[in-house]
Amino acid sequence: MTPSPRVPxxxxxxxRLSPGDEPSLGLEAWxxxxxxxxxxxxxxxxxxxxxxxxxxxxxxxxxxxxxxxLVQETWIRVHRARHTYxxxxxxxxxxxxxxxxxxxxxxxxxxxxxxxxxxxDVLPPVxxxxxxxxxxxxxALLAGLPPAQREVIVLLKISGMTIEEVALxxxxxxGSVKQKAHRAYRRLREVLSxxxxxx
Amino acid sequence: xKPDDLEQIxxxxxxxxxxxxxxxxxxxxxxxxxxxxLRPAKPLASPRWFLLSFIxxxxxxxxxxxxILGMHGLHVxxxxxxxxxxxxxxxxxxxxxxxxxxxxxxAGGARLGWQAWxxxxxxxxxxxxxxxxxxxxxxxxxxxxxxxxxxxxxxxxTGLIVALILRRGxxxxxxxxxLAAGTLSGLAGLAMLELHCPNLKAIHVISWHVAVVVLxxxxxxxxxxxxxxxxxxxxxxxxxxxxNA
Lengths: 199, 245
Hints:
The complex is a heterodimer. By secondary structure, chain A is mainly α. Chain A is 62% helix and 0% strand.
């Protein structure tokens, strides 16, 4: 069995990974425990994966409240689907496959609701609830990418998954993921070049 | 910012600290939902078991209904014709079964691309035009409707059983699962017709027998799409989406 990362005493504190840790270290064992209704394993899994999910949804242009709701929706689906996880398979692609579908479902429904709504008055600006301790340039950069390329970059670079894991999570081939990542990189470099020239 | 900064920006974003209260809130909500009444879940059987189940359901319905109606088609088919048709049927049924198996669990494998479905759609018209002759339209509709009805009558219960097997997993996209299940059940209908129907006119087989697969696939996709829409309506997060706050 793979060694598990140390779990803090506080049951709601996120499990922190040290820089040398593999992202999926111990997840398979926890997932197997969760399937067997082991509460400690389920707690550890939630504490380790929730921050990754939150980051995944936040980076994809979501508000904090929306992202928290999507994390919750993902966990509800993970719970319903937990019998479909096969022991020994990587856990992160399995969870992120569910997460991206929860996100897609929600986006489609939102688009439909917005299409039916008519704005009757100018809404006052809402103060953004910035969930990050410090903001970076990433959001502005990723905004220019098509959704599929943005998703691949987020899964590869922010969630720390391998190309094979991203391929599993997105039901695509590894070649297709590589191609999307390559195109995304090219586009991001172009954006950065333009910005550098204009400065 | 320069192009060389890209890796640095991405690395910084990955290390960017989430505010503790945001993480804590997400974890607490998940724990409240999941840990209450946690029960053991029996893991799914192996993919091979499901593949065999799908093929067995498809072949079982086709052969048993053809046996009841009479194997008139099998008796008039030549050896080469029979071998070509039933090999293609088995290959496409395997393809559809793989698509069904992949659709029934998250991260189940790469989706079948549109190229695979295109090949599946044209393989039988091409094959039938090679092994059968006769393009007379005499009694075209009169002879065709009973075949279409009989083929669909086999496809519907097959599709129902395949859908029940699919429900043992966790289908995330019912539209693609429905397309695969519909195609598989349509192939059961086509197999039954090849065993039962003695009409070997190319135009009859290409039009009416292949139509069973096409219609069953479309029907499966449509039912799946409706199931997806129903699930989306139940998604709780849309109310909290940006713009709907």
